[in-house]
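Per-record layout

source: Ruegeria denitrificans
name: Carbon monoxide dehydrogenase subunit G (CoxG)
length: 151
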Amino acid sequence: MELADEIVINAPKEQVYAALNDPEVLKLCIPGCEELIKHSDTELEAKVVLKVGPVKARFSGDVQLDTAGAPDAFSLAGQGNGGPAGHAKGGADVTLTADGPNTTILRYQAKADIGGKLAQLGSRLIQSTAKKLAAKFFKSFADVVNEDAAA
């Protein structure tokens, strides 16, 4: 499954990049996130509870960041295990483009693969849930960064 979108954030690119690397900001924005631990600048551990259709699962997973193109671009890859509900792995490429001194365009392309009970729910339900979760994350993220920029 693949997802792609862009969002306009009313903050300078450096501030957006810093927020994308701040575990506290990410924890606030990731739907169902119970815990987010930063082990290093490139390694995070997350515990997330998600409901997809009739299946509710608690995922534990690891995320690796590749910041070689920072602050203009970076990528992340991760995998999570939801026990009997299944497992997921995927990644995303994110680019940040300044659009004036106080506006940033964030674009992302993400891919995900799932297995287990979740994979049996049907691709339409999985795709629509993934789109909703991504939209919820980026709306929350934009709101948090816009508030910080205004303050």
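summary: The first strand starts at residue 2 and ends at 9. Helices lie at 13-20, 23-29, 123-150.
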